[in-house]
Queue: 3 jobs
Job 1
Amino acid sequence: MRDLTLRIEPGERVLLLGASGSGKSTLLAALAGVLGGDEEGESVGELLIDGVPAAQARGRAGLVLQDPDAQVILARVGDDVAFGCENLGVPRDQIWPRVGAALEDVGLALPLDHSTKALSGGQKQRLALAGAIAMRPGLLLLDEPTANLDPAGVAEVRESVARTVAAHGSTLVVVEHRVEVWLPVVTRVIVLGDEGVIADGPPALVLEREGERLAHGGVWVPGIPPALPPPPRNSPGEVLLSARDLAVQRVRGTTVAAGIDLAVHAASALAITGPNGAGKSTLGLTLAGLLPPAAGRVIATAPLQRGAGPSPIRWRARELLTRIGTVFQEPEHQLLARTVRAELEVGPRALGIDEPARIDELLERLRLSRLAEANPFTLSGGEKRRLTVAAALATRPDVLVLDEPTFGQDARTWAELVGLLAEIRDDGVALVTITHDADVVSALHARRHALEATP
């Protein structure tokens, strides 16, 4: 991010837009005073909060990170929400009423001693927001706070944020690719580009005056849908993977979903949907052979087994590589190498093969070529997501399990990623996608398997 000049007045509610990788998350970290020092990068100019450098104004801003898993600090829900208040020196008799109110606001109806380890990704997102709200900051900074939430959760979180900023007069800066979610709340839209601010003003005016140009640059503009892939070329093929009376668990002894029967077909897409906490990610990891079933079975048929046996959980890592690829909900959990190119080479190298043409193709298709020598951890959230998809595809698996595959994508990269998934589906790959993105389900012509919320 460079050449950025702007002023945000107290009490403004700003929606920060821009293409994937335009610097939105970097700006939020800078506003929160946690961007890092000279040893982590270079900076010029000044950034002031209440007239003082942002790094000296810590505590004035509450930040919800793009990856909520990275923001979980303590083992129990109540303690985690209270952490920020305690660090600000809020009197103890005020902390716990704030904690209870914040959890209620974000719709996280769990006991205060509930384990944070047992939370789903969407629940961790609500937890991080509750921690920020409880601090009652003057500046509330939200980085894609609804990305992993079910539709009801999106509305609930948006309304809780609106109530918070209204009650305390807070300034709000929110990053979200899906513009329509926040239009009822925000008073200003700022769009970042390669050279600073490329559009700024009231939402209706910016979207009407600049809509076509912004959509061409990747911004999700209401009324201008992204390009969609064509319908499947083939009918679903043979069953590669099935679940029979399956129960799954994230933490040993705590079943999150049970009685699951489903089939995964070659050359087709299966979408696992349902509310936060219903067990979607846990089911995906169990189907992928990365978690043992709590009960029941996951069975690979002969075309997928290829001599490895019927139970994916018993396969060696090398056997999984070419049979079932997995894209985790949190990209950081599967980054291993020092450069983007090396990340794509991890799987092929483990198989003893060298496929530079395949690596170059994936880098190009997913707009990562210019970042080939960058450290994966320095990428934006959307770029990390595309990198993990590319890494899973590098070994050409027969089944691909993707958890929230379109997280962090602008309209252009969303269309390109979905188009690539449609192509590999047509080439015979079985797709299993865990998603709240209804557009992905329809674009891939996916069959739905809906999980219900745990009582």
Job 2
Amino acid sequence: MKKLYFLLLPLIVVSCKSNPSAVTEKTSSSSSKSVEIAYKVKESEVSDFLKYLSSDELEGRETGTKGIEKAAVFLEDFFKKNNIKPYFSSYRDTLTNFKSPAFNIVGVLEGTDPELKKEFVVLSAHYDHIGVEKNKQGDVINNGANDDASGVTAVAQMAKYFAETKSNKRSILFVFFAGEEKGLLGSKSLVQKLKKKDFNLYTQLNIEMIGVPMKRDYLAYITGFDKSNMAEKINEYTGKKTIGFLPKEAEYKLFYRSDNYSFFEAFGKPCQSLSTFDFENFEFYHHVSDEFKVMDIAHMTSFIQELLPAVTQISVSPTEEITMNK
């Protein structure tokens, strides 16, 4: 997450059936729609993906370094393996506001509905971190497992789900941002290009730091809770209290401190971040001990699974149900 003590994220919920591509709607007693998902997120795949992305080999993934270049290749290969096409001429979207070569990694799955596919949902996370400590002995690599390899892992698993099930009627842009730690540079650069293409954005879900659970009566929180009805709709789609309000989020104005804000500023649509970092459950923010070994893989897996009904319904609802509050 971008510098200082600011971070973010929330999430969502799922259940299962025998057919792995089945998606069904259920109506609860409160007359809200919840979505039932048969697809199962594999804990081993979550673990393997996160372990490499936060490994010493990538040297903390600082934007513009050899380490983040290795991460970029890894993410490109993931998209290729899962038949997710580049949105631009290649997966690499060059930052226009950084002095040395740096790239967002951007893939797209076209929607299955002839009309709704003209609208886009953006699922995103930043894959850069803060690199190697200077003038220090011992462990010098800021691996950034929670910040934000965990969020990238979640978005990647959602991409795999949609690629396999073809359950999105709207088109989905999957974005891994560089330059977030440098001042949201990757998202600021990308939105300018999308605006020129008359990009028809419905909503953006950005994932920030989901590596450890909270001890609260909800799974995750959303930044800018009162700016839209997104939290309410996610809970409706999952049939649970998946998203809650975290006072610290409002106090520290986290809505403005991750890549969702660049999209909100450019498009004026519901663009928010989900997180399970609550300032009490993780002491290694921007620290060399933010490593794979302290991540809760079972929590991450269930978090991603829980989010699938919500992102599915967001991608298929016949109208734009998530709206800005007046």
Job 3
Amino acid sequence: MFSVLFCILAWPVTAQDAPRLLFPVDCRLGETCFLQQFVDHDPGPGARDFACGPQSYDGHTGTDIRTTDMAGMAAGMVVVAAADGVARALRDGVPDGGTASMGDGQGCGNGVALTHADGWETQYCHLMQGSITVREGQQIAAGAELGLIGYSGRTEFPHLEFILRHEGRVIDPFAPTATGSCGSGEAALWRDALPHVAG
């Protein structure tokens, strides 16, 4: 069964413990895809991203990477594994169409969860119906195709929601040791530097 854990940043991790992550979408950032929203760093009812900006919403647990429009999704934008791992769980068969087509318990839509060494996990949500290319228990190499960006689950636009966890706790790959704070300027977990473009 594919489950989504909604938990917030709780304790710090050290950079040496964490995997170095590939960007999980095969696209040209800033041209064919965009960083839409980030993990919420506000411990209260408000929302702020890792740089103390407005690109989040209350309780958001992932990094949203969106296509430019529906045509961009229809062209097929590949989602890849951010690190070596094993496919722990997956779900396919949720219609594309956003929130209006979502059934109970299908907030993530079609998705894949990968386990990694030392208690790490990545989750890939809102994939296109019928596009998932892996099976449960399969060994997955970093960069391997998992599926395509879709419009399934609780969403109002086509995108990938990329979620990183350590021991079940959500970790922001842009600020892995921040716990309810923002603006630390710490090193991110991405193998290659990614820009933070204000929304």
